[in-house]
Every structure is written in C-alpha cells, then in structure tokens.
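1st attempt posting a full record on here, be nice pls
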Amino acid sequence: MGYRVAVVGATGNVGREMLNILAEREFPADEVAALASRRSLGTEVSWGDRTLRCQDLEAFDFAGWDIALFAIGSEATKVHAPRAAAAGCVVIDNSSLYRMDPDVPLVVPEVNAEAVTGYAKKNIIANPNCSTAQMVVALKPLHDRARIRRVVVATYQSVSGTGKEAMDELWDQTKGMYVPGQEVAPRVYPRQIAFNVIPHIDVFMEDGQTREEWKMAAETKKILDPAIKVTATCVRVPVFVGHSEAVNVEFEEWIDEDEARDILREAPGILVVDKREPGGYVTPVECVGDYATFVSRIRQDPTVENGLNLWIVSDNLRKGAALNAVQIAELLGQKVLRKG
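the predicted structure (as tokens):
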C-alpha cells in the first residue's frame, strides 16, 4: 500500500514542480490531491500522465492523508499547516514560517538526513530557502573534510524565486525595451529587472542586511553547523529559472583544490563541471530541469590561509524547493512511515 499525498499550492510554480517530481521519481503514492485557493477550484494540473482537478484548500479534510507538501505563503501556511498536522498528516513546508522553529527540523537530505526523525514534535518538517539549499549541498562534503570557518557568498537569483508575476514582469519589460512606447514600469520589483540587477531580496532589517541574506546565514548554521560564520549579498538577476552563487570558503584545515574537486565529484546530489576553458562551467540555462547541484570554477583563494572559491548553480524550483520537499518525503517513508 502506498501513500496518500496532498500538494498544497498545486497551481503555483513550485506546486506544479512537486507534482512533476512525484511522478518522475515514482514516489509510492496511491492517491495525490491537488489543493489550491478557492479561486483555483477545478483548475486542472498534471501528475504524470494523470490529470487532477484542484480542490479547495479551505474545505479539505487532511484526516487519513499521510503527507502534505506545502507550497504556499507563510500566512496561509500558518492557518493550514497546523490543521493538517493535527489531523495526523505530516507537513513538509516550503515557506519560511517554521524554518527557525527549534521544534521543527530543517532538512536537506544530502546534508542532514538524520534530522527528519525530529518531525514528531509538531508533525512538520521545514524546507530551507532555495539559495541555502544548493549551497549547503556543496559545502557539506568539504566541511566534513576540512571544517568550514567562514563563508562569503554573493547570489545571482532568478525571478522565478519571486513567482509567476515576477517572471511575467521580466518578460514584459524585455519585450517593451524593443517597442517604443511599450515600456513596462516595475510592479513586482522596486527597480526595472530587465537588463538590470537588483541587490535587494526580501525586506531590509535594522542592521542593513536583507532578510534573504539573514536566512542564508541562519539556515546554514541550523542545517550544517552553528559554528560556521556566513555573510551574504543576495541579488536578483534577469534570469527566469536557476540560481547561481559565487562562494568563498575559509577552512580550519588546508584543502587543495584538486582534492576538493575529487570530494565534490563523489558527493551525493552534485555534478562537477570544471574545465579551465571557455564554456567549461555551468550557467543557469544548463541547470533548468535538472536535479543536480552543479559546482564549477573550483580554485584556491590565495588571500587567506585555507581558502577556496566555488561557483554553484541549481534549478531553484527543483533542488531549491520541489525536489528537496519530495526527497524529504522519500526520507520520511524510508525512516519513519514505512509504507509502500
């Protein structure tokens, strides 16, 4: 007997990817429910070769369902995740609501799979921020070898991280640049995103960093090691799908770039593409639709005693969100629920 799985937010970018990945990975589900807001009632979405009609989240009864994959905002999650959890359905939440809750595990399966067993306190497991997820997958095997002391990261984050309206804004502004009188003013972002970059993701905090930058530091500490120092600059770029990161890592011990390359090649979830020639690296265009976290431009940092530079790229809708959630569900099945 397989699982009964609810996908909450099934009409959004991440929800649709969750349905795709459940089918692609042949997750042992006997039944999948597609849930969304009332205005999307009856909207058709695909789960493999099957078509599902969206049900009303407000009226849905989670009793008897095993796992709910949540891909809605924090406000709606605050209402419906506890309701699902109280009904005995394990919630895997993609919002930021529960990530720093000490009673909720924050899980990246390649990094801290054992943490999934801590779900029982609230019947909820949190999915990390998309930019954090891909970074910690690459840092984990290097941390195991040489102990990371400090990370400095600059992100290049695609507009799909904001949602469909942001993708539409990039498309419309790009078209408008070539048609006089058809220019499109910013609506989603505070500045034009087409042919531009915006050093501002999420709200500003009192110390000058944005909440996205704070998330990367706080979540890395919770997932990987609280002793690691992390400082981030998060930037939105005119790319539809795929987040990139330039990462500088300082270690406690010496690690050679060749050894680091070999370690990463053997690590789960990672593909190394690192040739020192034009095109010998991965860009966001190549990562779209792929499960892997790609690492390129691995090289020594000569300005510190034990330093490396890395270029990390991943499909943010997949590893940064939907894939990680499904991988957590797989872990839950293997370690706890044991059905199917």
